[in-house]
Task: structure prediction
Amino acid sequence: MELHTNIRSDWSMVKLGDICEKAAKIKRQDVIPDEEFIYLDIGGIDNKSNRIVDHKKYHWKDAPSRAQQIVKVGDTLFSTVRTYLKNIAMVDNSMFENQICSSGFTVIRATSELADSKYLFAISLSEGFLQPLNKLQTGTSYPAVRDHDVFGQIIPLPPLPEQLAIVSKIEQLFSDLDNGIENFKKAQEQLKIYRQAVLKKAFEGELTKKCREEQADLPSAEELLQQIKEEREKHYQKQLDGWEQDLKEWEYEGNKGKKPTKPKKTKELFPLTEKELAVLLELPDGKFWLKLGMLTLNVEYGTSAKSKKEGKIPVLRMGNIQNNCFVWNDLVYTDDEDEINKYLLKKGDVLFNRTNSPELVGKTAIYNGEKTAIFAGYLIRINQIHSLVNPNYLNYFLNSYTAKVHGNTVKTDGVNQSNINGEKLKNYPFPYFSLLEQHQIVSEIETRLSICDKMEETITESLQKAESLRQSILKKAFEGKLLNEKELEEARNAPDWEPAEKLLERIRQEKQIKENNNKPTRRKTHG
Result:
């Protein structure tokens, strides 16, 4: 979609550069090294609100090489790098007057007051302006356009009073839209709080209280502990039997290949201390907290082998965990048979993200057998004993507030990254209910959270529609269809109304005068 060209007779289609002047470039040889200035860079633009949200201060002696252009209030800073990201903002704060911006911006500055700065800013946000520029981008890592590509775009220019009326109407409609978006975002936050409230009640045993009251002969805590001990021994024996069989086959084949490794018996973990228990949720009678490692056959790190863009099967990475589920996009692959055999995922495997940003470390997801896959090294397979732990119960708990708080106390923080290793994961506190009650708890959680999911989906769709509506408003504005007849009549009755053709001629004259005044004068020589 390009900007509308079938316009009214009192509008004109103009090249953006014809009604703009270029920002002055700073001359490094003329600056004072210790002088401080404000620097505006692409990273300081919030591309959701299209506002300047951050700036930096430098002395010229330490200034980045891209600090080149002098900005003025009313300028539109249009990022020429990855224009589809819409890092575009208007300079609307007097503190930035005569400060410096990056050469990564095209500075859109109206030549005169006959072209409204806010109108040009609104133009720059429209898909009709952006899409042709996206096609002109060159480069791979940082695709970009050039200043003359931006200034070469053809835009509609209405009479000045109509420009002002259009801007006013856009601001009014955008304000209403932003209020609606803010309400949707508040609803999203409330859903997050509700989700955590559901999980808290679930792991306190509140959601299954009635079920427990209706059941007789429920196992005691001692009986459950004995069951855990027996199941751990049984599963370890099963591992030993498998190893012995593999060893016999290896010896029968003449010791070819790698010798099967004897499985290690999982270490007994110290019980949770009184201090640790004091900060945890209070559980019903017969239920108790223990360490997660007591319910596993050891935890297991994923493959560290290099993956490829194409291959036999996908390798799931931390980015594939979204909202407690796996998403099957942005995949990498492997053909390595040894890696596939070692790290092949089984249905019901719960994977824990051991390294990520501080707010995302510890997120989990269940592999449900969607596609044959293995897992990467930043993920840990928990290897829970399925006769003791429902994988969905485990997944929900590890994403609960209690588990997140514990994770924050044991994580190791580095530069922009946090880590929770396998040993710390095994020592996570875990609320133990019988397997039957775990199934019931999961059912109660999912009944409630399915309603949340539907509401979340509705809100997400509404937010997407809001962005489409924003573009629809801009499209109508630059087709001359946004103002109603009354608003249009008021603009036409303004004392400074004149057809855009005359307006454009006056802009050109003003621009020519400015350019003549800025031309350097030649000094006379005397013979």
The first helix runs from residue 117 to 125.
